[in-house]
Amino acid sequence: xxxxxxxxxxGSVLLQPVAHGDGTDDLYVLLIPAIIALIFFAFLRRKSDxxxxxx
Length: 55
Prior knowledge:
This protein has helices at 4-14, 26-54. The chain is mainly α.
C-alpha cells in the first residue's frame, strides 16, 4: 500500500506551479493537495475493504 509520506509530497509537487508568490494562492496550494490526498486515501481504503471481503 502507498504510504502518506509518498502521496502528500507528490500532491504538493504537482501543484507547485499554481503558486504565483503573491500569497493569495497559498490557501489553494495547501488545500488542493489535502483534498486530493483525502480522496485518494478514501479510495484506497475502500479498495482494501473490498479486497478483504473477497478473501
